[in-house]
Design brief:
Blueprint: E1 9-13, H1 19-32, E2 36-42, E3 45-50, E4 56-60, H2 67-84, E5 91-97, H3 100-111, E6 115-119, H4 125-134, H5 137-142, E7 149-152
Parallel strand pairs: 1-2, 1-6, 2-5, 6-7
Antiparallel strand pairs: 3-4
């Protein structure tokens, strides 16, 4: 039997991630004795500069700056901490900008991830239109990639 390749597990979390998704990823990371990297990609922001020293500058595509714009990373981190405890040796949290699938692929490559984990598509008419125009995140991740992708269905 082939051994699992070394490298962290990368979990893509959205605005409204499920506890089941996070627990499934955390349990698998624990069983494989690998670090879990939880990553949120803000599709309404884009990377404008990436300096050789690692400095990055991002700007929002939404010209209105309000409390809602500050919501994602702080609230998402609080939600993850309520399920996983404080970030540390077992898990960490990253915020990325731009196209969700491309950003997750880049992070997977830069961290040497052994598996990418995402939730299944959201239900509803608006989500259907998004998938029709842009494709599903998991579909874009699985096309032409070398990294295995695990899709965790929502509880039904």
């Amino acid at each position: 039997m082939e051994e699992w390749p070394e490298g962290p597990l990368l979990l893509g979390v959205g605005w409204d991630f499920s506890e089941r998704l996070v627990r499934t990823a955390a349990d698998l990371a624990d069983a494989l004795r690998e670090h879990l990297v939880c990553a949120f990609v803000d599709p309404a922001s884009y990377l404008t500069e990436w300096e050789p020293d690692g400095t990055r500058t991002a700007h929002s595509l939404d010209p209105v700056i309000n409390d809602e714009a500050a919501f994602p990373s702080g609230e998402l981190l609080d939600g993850l901490e309520s399920i996983l405890g404080e970030p540390g040796e077992a898990w960490s949290f990253r915020v990325l900008n731009g196209d969700v699938a491309k950003s997750l692929k880049r992070l997977a490559e830069s961290t040497g991830a052994s598996l990418l984990i995402v939730g299944a598509d959201r239900p509803g008419a608006l989500a259907w239109v998004d998938r029709l125009l842009e494709g599903s995140v998991w579909g874009n991740l699985t096309s032409g990639g070398r990294l295995p992708v695990m899709v965790v269905p929502e509880e039904g």
